[in-house]
UniProtKB/TrEMBL annotation:
<comment type="similarity">
    <text>Belongs to the WD repeat coronin family.</text>
</comment>
<dbReference type="InterPro" id="IPR015505">
    <property type="entry name" value="Coronin"/>
</dbReference>
<protein>
    <recommendedName>
        <fullName>Coronin</fullName>
    </recommendedName>
</protein>
<feature type="repeat" description="WD">
    <location>
        <begin position="170"/>
        <end position="211"/>
    </location>
</feature>
<feature type="domain" description="DUF1899">
    <location>
        <begin position="3"/>
        <end position="67"/>
    </location>
</feature>
<dbReference type="Pfam" id="PF16300">
    <property type="entry name" value="WD40_4"/>
</dbReference>
<dbReference type="GO" id="GO:0007015">
    <property type="term" value="P:actin filament organization"/>
</dbReference>
<dbReference type="GO" id="GO:0030027">
    <property type="term" value="C:lamellipodium"/>
</dbReference>
<keyword id="KW-0175">Coiled coil</keyword>
<dbReference type="InterPro" id="IPR015943">
    <property type="entry name" value="WD40/YVTN_repeat-like_dom_sf"/>
</dbReference>
<dbReference type="InterPro" id="IPR001680">
    <property type="entry name" value="WD40_rpt"/>
</dbReference>
<dbReference type="InterPro" id="IPR015048">
    <property type="entry name" value="DUF1899"/>
</dbReference>
<dbReference type="Pfam" id="PF00400">
    <property type="entry name" value="WD40"/>
</dbReference>
<dbReference type="Pfam" id="PF08953">
    <property type="entry name" value="DUF1899"/>
</dbReference>
<dbReference type="GO" id="GO:0051015">
    <property type="term" value="F:actin filament binding"/>
</dbReference>
<feature type="repeat" description="WD">
    <location>
        <begin position="76"/>
        <end position="118"/>
    </location>
</feature>
<dbReference type="GO" id="GO:0001755">
    <property type="term" value="P:neural crest cell migration"/>
</dbReference>
Length: 474
């Protein structure tokens, strides 16, 4: 019997690194020992966690700012401890969240054309974790809903619009959480933990829907992500320290749908998933390759496609959302590979002879419009992502500024309990003092902003005058 090769339009996908002049050079990529991707990308910016003395910082570069990055280039540097994870908001390309060893989550608004001065003031600081925060993940369809997970084994879901922690899942994990993933419409999350369990959780009901003990037998870190059809994909290690990948149905987690052994490398496999093409890209930390697989409904369910190999090992990896790709070149994925001192884009392409738009490669994809407001989601509503067509390429629209409206502490009535009232009396006076302090701070910040604006205007004026001088001199 001659073996028939499986038909798939993605069989010949190939990866190619861009030329040197299109890389981002001379970047001191963070050396912190943490298994996050260290890089986040959207159609406007690439953000990279970097080494920073006396605190934590990350770079935010406009995509076109390739070449050597000057050491004095402004950074986002408000954290007092190393930054461990960053994530761009899917509904606003200028808003990014960061989690840090200083136990806080900060949300930042990046100016439309990138940074001209270092950013030290976040839009909002989210405080609630008692240990370092290693995971931040925005809700896929609801505006201003952010999840964070820390080494205190707690998951907190925030309404960023009010700066409040609305859901706190602090009793579900007995050990460190390795990663958290939202499902397609953001109604469930799945987590992988150091206790070797994979859990599927309904965060609003605060209950575990499904769990699997020893999803992978090995002691090294696991990863678990949701697929578009509701199944869960995991990577981990066998008892013999071989790297494994597995596919699970949350309705029956006794046995995996598929389980594959890969190799004996010890780097954690970071999965990146494209729901439009059902392709999973696996990037091992410390590996120099990206393996990719297609998920289908037919056995063996997880089909190996190919491997992109290079010489240098990767320290981290950024993954561009579908709307940031070049559809005219049949590009189906773009990675931003972190080396020790640079960031190198890698483009995955399906070879096609025609220059026409390939609608089979680009079904409608999740756009930047939020399907729900935060309050609607917390009240129990669900909605799938609002899809957009990429036929004529994606043109980024104008993003609205992130505004945080903090609830007034003075308006909240104390409980009708005499003992409680006595305790609350001194707190009231401190609240009034803090409100006065905030008002003073606001005044100072406004003055600083107006001075900065004046400086910017003067800079523009100087450059215009210099241009005029150059013309006269020429």
């Amino acid at each position: 019997m001659r073996r028939v090769v499986r038909q798939s339009k993605f069989r010949h996908v190939f990866g190619q690194a861009v030329k040197n002049d299109q890389c981002y050079d001379d970047i001191r990529v963070s050396r912190v020992t943490w298994d996050s991707s260290f890089c986040a990308v959207n159609p406007r910016f690439v953000a990279i966690i970097i080494e920073a003395s006396g605190g934590g910082a990350f770079l935010v570069l406009p995509l076109h700012k390739t070449g050597r990055i000057d050491k004095s280039y402004p950074t986002v540097c408000g954290h007092t401890g190393p930054v461990l994870d960053i994530d761009w908001c899917p509904h606003n390309d200028q808003v990014i969240a960061s989690g840090s060893e200083d136990c806080t989550v900060m949300v930042w608004q990046i100016p439309e054309n990138g940074l001209t001065l270092s950013l030290t003031e976040p839009v909002v600081v989210l405080e609630g974790h008692s240990k370092r925060v290693g995971i931040v993940a925005w809700h896929p369809t609801a505006r201003n809903v952010l999840l964070s997970a820390g080494c205190d084994n707690a998951i907190i879901i925030w309404n960023v619009g009010t700066g409040e922690a609305l859901i706190n899942l602090d009793d579900m994990h007995s050990d460190m959480i390795y990663n958290v993933s939202w499902n397609r419409n953001g109604s469930l999350i799945c987590t992988a933990s150091k206790d070797k369990k994979v859990r599927v959780i309904d965060p609003r009901k605060q209950e575990i829907v499904a769990e699997k003990e020893k999803a992978h037998e090995g002691a090294r870190p696991m990863r678990a992500i949701f697929l578009a059809d509701g199944n869960v994909f995991t990577t981990g290690f066998s008892r013999m320290s071989e790297r494994q990948l597995a596919l699970w149905n949350p309705k029956n987690m006794q046995e995996p749908i598929a389980l594959h052994e890969m190799d004996t490398s010890n780097g954690v496999l970071l999965p990146f998933y494209d729901p439009d093409t059902s392709i999973i890209y696996l990037c091992g930390k410390g590996d120099s390759s990206i393996r990719y697989f297609e998920i289908t409904d037919e056995s063996p369910y997880v089909h190996y496609l190919n491997t992109f190999s290079s010489k240098e090992p990767q320290r981290g990896m950024g993954y561009m959302p579908k709307r940031g790709l070049d559809v005219n070149k049949c590009e189906i994925a773009r990675f931003f590979k972190l080396h020790e001192r640079k960031c190198e884009p890698i483009i995955m392409t399906v070879p096609r002879k025609s220059d026409l738009f390939q609608d089979d490669l680009y079904p409608d994809t999740a756009g930047p419009e939020a399907a729900l407001e935060a309050e609607e989601w917390f009240e129990g509503k669900n909605a799938d992502p609002i899809l957009i067509s990429l036929k004529h390429g994606y043109i980024p629209g104008k993003n609205r500024d992130l505004k945080v409206v903090k609830k007034n502490i003075l308006d909240s009535k104390p409980t009708a309990n005499k003992k409680c009232d006595l305790i609350n009396v001194p707190k009231k006076t401190t609240d009034v003092a803090s409100v006065q302090n905030e008002a003073k701070l606001d005044e100072i910040l406004k003055e600083i902003k107006s001075i900065k604006d004046t400086i910017c205007n003067q800079d523009e004026r100087i450059s215009k005058l210099e241009q005029q001088m150059a013309k006269i001199a020429a």
